[in-house]
Hints:
The chain is α/β, with parallel strands linked by helices. It has two domains: 2-227, Spore Coat Polysaccharide Biosynthesis Protein SpsA, Chain A; 237-301, no CATH class. It is built from ten helices and nine strands. The protein has helices at residues 14-27, 45-57, 73-82, 103-113, 141-146, 148-154, 184-189, 202-211, 237-277, 282-289, and strands at 2-10, 34-41, 63-68, 87-93, 97-99, 117-125, 170-172, 179-183, 216-227. Strands 1, 2, 3, 4, 5, 6, 7, 8 and 9 form a nine-stranded mixed sheet that branches. Helix 1 (14-27) links the parallel strand 1 (2-10) and strand 2 (34-41). Helix 9 packs across helix 10. The radius of gyration is 19 Å and the shape is globular.
Amino acid sequence: MFDIAIILINYNSSKHTINCIQSIIDNTSKKINYQIIITDNCSEKEDYLTLKAFCETISFPNLELHRSNINTGFGGGNMFGVQYSNAKYYAFINNDTLFLNDCLSILKSALDDNKNIGIAGAQAYKENGDFMISLDHFASPAREIIGRNFLEFFNPKKYPKRKKKYSTPIQVNFIPGSFMFLRAADFNEIGGFDTNIFLYYEETDLCLRLAKKSQYAYLIPDAKFIHFHGASTEKSIAIKKELKISLLYIMRKHYGYFGHKVVLTYLILKYFISSIFKPKNWALFILVLNGAPLTKSLKQIQKIKQIH
C-alpha cells in the first residue's frame, strides 16, 4: 500500500498536467511512498496522445494514465481515478498547479498529528507570487443572500477572513478543490464525491459531509503551491449555468426545501433584474426560472469518444 495516492484530471490541458507531475516529483520527499493516477476526462485525441507519450517516457514507476471515453466532470473524474488507487491518503490536485515545497509531507504530518482534521488544503499563490484566497465559507442561503463579508463581520470565529494570510493551521468551512488532502478511510466512509454534480461545489459538498462526522477542514499554510486559476476551464455562459445548477443542487441537498426555495427565488429576481441591463444574463434567468435542474447540466449532453 502507498502512503498517498495523487489523483489528477486532464481535460485538454496536457501541458499543465505534465508540468504539474514534474513539480510533484521534484518537490516531494523520497521518504514518501506515493502513486500518481491521471484520469484523462475524454480529451481530444491529440492532447491525450501527448500526455500518453509523456507518461510512457518519464522515469517514475508509480504513474498510471487511465482514459475515460466520456467527460465525467470533476467529481466523476476523481472517482474514476480512485478505483485504481491503493493508499492511506488521497490527494486530489488540479492539474493547473505547481508545488512550491514538499506539500504532501507537510499535509500528511498535519493529519497524522491531528485526528480532528478531516481534510486539509495548502496555501495557493498566483503565478506572479501574489497571495490567493485558499479557504471559503459553505455555500448557504445566508452566504448567497447577505454575502461573505457580512458573515465574517458577524461571526469571525465561524467564518474566518478569507483574504487574510495565515501563518498557522486554521479550521475553515471548506478548502478549494484545487488541492484537497484527506484520509482514504474518511473519503470512502462518506462515499466519496457526489457524481450528480458535474462541475463546481464538489468540495463544498465533500466538506459538509465530513463536518457532519466531526471531520473538519483545515488550511495548512506551510504547504504552498501555485494555482493557474481557471486554466483548465473556459469561462462561458454554459459554465455560469453549470455553477447555478450545482449551487441549487447543494441548497436542496444540505438546506432542505425551504433553503432551496429561498435561494432559487433570490436568483430568479437577481437575474431578471440584471438581464434588463445585461441581455446575456437572460439565459441564466430562464434557467433558474425553470428550477435549474440537473437535467440541464452539461453532463447530460455527453458523447462517447473512443481512441483506438
